Amino acid sequence: MAHRAAVLTVSDLGARGEREDTAGPAVASMLTGAGFEVAERALVPDDPDEIEERLVSWSEQGVRLVLTAGGTGLTARDHTPQATLRAIDYRVPGMEEAMRAASIAVVPTAMLSRGVVGVRGSTLIINLPGSERAARENLQVVLGVLEHACDQLAGDAADVAALHDQLKADS
Asked: 148-159, pLDDT tens digit by residue?
C-alpha cells in the first residue's frame, strides 16, 4: 500500500489569489509518480501558527510524509522553518544538507535557504523552496530515500502500537 502524503504550499500572494501555485502541484505530481498517495493538498499564507497547525493536524491524521513549498527564505515573512521546528520531535539534518549541497551546486544563493527536515511522531516533514524549479530540484535529491524513510517510520508506529496493545492486555 502506498504511503499517504500531503503537500502544503506556503505563500501570502498565493493565499490571496495574486499568484498561481505551481510548486505544490509539481511536488504532488512527483510524489504520485514515485508511488505515494497524495491525500491532502493546501495553500496557506505564511503564518507560523497556521503552518504549524496544518503540520500537526496532518501528522495526527496518519499522513506519513508532508512536503511544504515556500517560506524558507530570509525575509521577515518567511516562517515555514520556525513553524516546522515547533511541530517536529527531531531533525533529519542529512536530508537538509543533501538538498542544500545539491542546490548550491546549481545556484550559490541556495545557501540562504533555511529549509528544515524533521519527524513528528511517524510523519516525515520536509521544507522545500517555493519556486517550482527549486522545489522540484530539492525533492529530486531526496526522492529515492523517501519510501525507505516512511517505511521506517511506519514500522516504528506499528511497533509502538503493538507494545501499547500488549501492555494494555497485560494490565
From this structure: 999 999 986 655
Phi, psi of 160 (to 5 degrees): -65, -45
Give the contacts of 160 (CB within 8 A, at least 6 positions apart). none
Tell me which residue of 152, 78, 149, 66 sits closest to 113, measured CA to CA: 78
Question: What is the residue extent of each domain of the chain?
Answer: 4-170
**Rounded (10°) angle between helices 23-33 and 132-170:** 60
The helix, strand and coil proportions of the chain, stated in percent and rounded to the nearest 5, come to: 55, 20, 25
From residue 28, alpha-carbon distances to 6, 39, 59, 144 in Å are 8, 10, 17, 15
What is the CATH number that goes with domain 4-170?
A: 3.40.980.10
| pLDDT tens figures, 86-136 | 999 999 999 999 999 999 999 999 999 999 999 999 999 999 999 999 999
Q: Among candidates 20, 55, 19, 22, which has minimal Cα distance to 40?
A: 55
In the chain, how long is the greatest CA-to-CA distance? Answer: 58
Residues β-bridged to residue 58:
none
Residue pair 130/69 in contact (Cβ under 8 Å)? The answer is yes
Sign of CA dihedral 109, 14, 55, 50: positive
